[in-house]
Amino acid sequence: MYKNQSDSKVRAKKHLGQHFLKDMNIARQIVDGLTLHGGYNKVLEIGPGMGVLTQFLLTKETYQTYVIEIDTESVAYLKKHYEELTPRIIEGDFLRYNTKETFSEKFAIIGNFPYNISSQIFFRALEIRDQIPEIVCMLQKEVALRIASPPGNKDYGILSVLLQAFYDIDYLVSVPPGAFDPPPKVQSGVIRLRRNAVEKLDCNEKMFFRVVKTAFNQRRKTLRNALRPIGEMPDHPLLTKRAEQLSVAEFVTLTQLAESIQ
């Protein structure tokens, strides 16, 4: 029988952005979102809390589940209720954790991400993307839609471009506030990211990140004006457009222009 979090004694902590999922059907859908893309056999759950996703992960025989949790109260709960998981509980902060201490090969990431640090988790995942062929996660719906949004959409932004450069992204399901305890003030969404075939961009990666961020910092302006902090760009048709209109490939071209003036 699966554990219902309404029976739990772990207190949700506001400073950690904790909202514990209590809908078992949604939990199962999130876990079933993993496709083994990239051939991994280990999964790391970020912020398992009281294990609502963990209990479904542990039923899978195709991969071995690890968890990383910063909340000591949740760690104690997990050790008590999931004794078989204890050797694979990492007590710490994913944003500061050296994953190579535990994972020598590829592994997937899954989790109900704390909304206040979800973007930071993705930036960290980008840094170690060659280790991570797949991510399935729940986060604030607005952010989830932004990440999965195609060019030309008002939701398309910095995270959209940076993540879509290296991952194919699917929006899977929306989740109402009532599925959590305590309920958040926003809607939630589940997305799946699967590593694409791009090993390296055809431009300097640091400059690519800088161009994308600078372009969207003034997204209402044409790119010629928005990118003035980087320098005076040579004439190019892309510079008459706005950031939200450009595909990843066009941002690569734009980065090559920026490199030419450095």
TrEMBL record:
Presence of the UniProt keyword DNA repair in the record: no
Free-text function comment from the UniProt entry: Specifically dimethylates two adjacent adenosines (A1518 and A1519) in the loop of a conserved hairpin near the 3'-end of 16S rRNA in the 30S particle. May play a critical role in biogenesis of 30S subunits.
UniProt-listed Enzyme Commission number(s): 2.1.1.182
Highest taxon of source: Bacteria
Domain Ribosomal RNA adenine methylase transferase N-terminal: 26-197
Organism, as annotated: Dyadobacter luteus
GO molecular function, one term: 16S rRNA (adenine(1518)-N(6)/adenine(1519)-N(6))-dimethyltransferase activity
Record flagged with keyword Signal: no
Protein name from the UniProt record: Ribosomal RNA small subunit methyltransferase A
Location(s) in or outside the cell: Cytoplasm
Catalytic reaction list: adenosine(1518)/adenosine(1519) in 16S rRNA + 4 S-adenosyl-L-methionine = N(6)-dimethyladenosine(1518)/N(6)-dimethyladenosine(1519) in 16S rRNA + 4 S-adenosyl-L-homocysteine + 4 H(+)
InterPro entries: KsgA/Erm (IPR001737), rRNA_Ade_diMease-like_C (IPR023165), rRNA_Ade_methylase_Trfase_N (IPR020598), rRNA_adenine_dimethylase (IPR011530), SAM-dependent_MTases_sf (IPR029063)
Residues bound to S-adenosyl-L-methionine: 19, 21, 47, 69, 93, 112
